[in-house]
Amino acid sequence: MGDKTFPHVNVDELAQFREVQQLAYRCVESVGEMLLLGMTEKDAARLLTEWLQDHGVRDWLHKPFAWFGDRTAFEGFSGLSHMAGFNLAFFPSSRRLEENMPVILDVAPILNGVIADVGYATCIGVNPILEQLKDDLAEHRELIVITDDDAYWLDDDLPHVRRWAQRGQTQFAA
């Protein structure tokens, strides 16, 4: 195996990335709490856009997305053959939110030239599969950060870190 070359990260810039990442998470968590049964994916995406615009965002890596129910599995989303490689299936639809449906909210704001891309899973009601997936992810998160030289945790105040703390799983927290 050859030498691994990692991009240089300027420690002074981490605060800017942390700020935009926190903004993105506040957005998806806030909008997640605003979701109502009967709303469409388009309604949720509009709320994400408005929330970020209200907080100073004017540019995007990609516009906010929302997916409900089986669309969270991205079935039929492959085959990037439309719009210069971007499948129209990714765009929010008129799918209506029902109780116990999984939801993914995805935002990628650019603020002062800094980008954060956040995907957030939630549910109105109870979805045992989503809960199991969150638990499984928490158990494997520690594999993502190998050493301090290989990757950086931008923030300890993220949904998965709070979830570990609530469950007493401090061994996974950064």
From TrEMBL:
InterPro entries assigned to the protein according to its UniProt record, in alphabetical order: Creatinase/aminopeptidase-like (IPR036005), Pept_M24 (IPR000994)
Highest taxon, organism lineage: Bacteria
Domain Peptidase M24: 16-129
Secretion signal, residue range per the UniProt entry: none
Gene3D superfamilies: Creatinase/methionine aminopeptidase superfamily (3.90.230.10)
Alphabetical list of Pfam families matching this protein: Peptidase_M24
Record's protein name: Peptidase M24 domain-containing protein
